[in-house]
Amino acid sequence: MKIYTLHKKQRLPISVEKAWEFLSDPKNLKEITPDYMGFNIISGADRPMYAGQLIQYIVTPILGIKTKWVTEITHTEDHKYFVDEQRYGPYALWHHKHFIHAIEGGVEMEDIIDYKVPLGFLGQLVHPILVKPKLEEIFAYRQKKLIELFGNL
To answer: SS3 of 3, please?
Structure first.
């Protein structure tokens, strides 16, 4: 069982409060997700984030195949971090930690995603060709959109 980790950091010239307000609102995820992913929230985004919250999405990650994805917000500490874990979806494991750190002139946002691809050995073969590049592309898009929205530090 191979578990992969994706680790990203980004600095933005905004306050911790503004970063938290944006990142902790599930509705904003659509804005920082590439359009081709067909991201659509089905339920669970009608309240401010809280531990135990279930959010259901439809995504189209590859080949136009629509996939249901259910995540649970398992941990949250206001203005510091939250964790979402996949309960149902395309990964065998998805554990995504979001941290917000105050730095001089703004914030540093840190994402640490531990994930496992499905299909055992076959999934591991496809990971460097399809899964990892797709995740890198999605997070590059996020970084670009966040700079468009808030500027760069």
So the answer is: coil
Question: Is 34:141 a contact under the CB 8 Å cutoff?
Answer: yes
pLDDT of residue 90: 92
- Structure tokens belonging to residue 124: 């591991």
Does the structure show a pLDDT above 90 at 153?
no
Question: Residue 107 corresponds to which tokens in the numbers above?
Answer: 């914030």
Q: What whole-number distance in Å separates Cα of residue 32 and Cα of residue 34? A: 7
Percent with pLDDT over 70 in the chain: 100
The topology (CATH level 3) of 4-150 is: Alpha-D-Glucose-1,6-Bisphosphate; Chain A, domain 4 (3.30.530)
Give the position of tokens 């081709």.
Answer: 36
The sign of the torsion formed by the CA atoms of 20, 21, 27, 28 equals negative
Return the beta strands (E) in the chain as ranges. 4-12, 40-43, 54-59, 67-77, 81-88, 93-103, 106-116
**Can you tell me the distance from the alpha carbon of 81 to that of 98, in angstroms, rounded to the nearest whole number?**
5
Per the CB < 8 A criterion, the answer to whether 84 and 71 are in contact is: yes
pLDDT tens sequence across 57-66: 999 877 778 9
Q: What is the mean pLDDT of residues 94-117?
A: 97
CB 135 within 8 A of CB 7: no
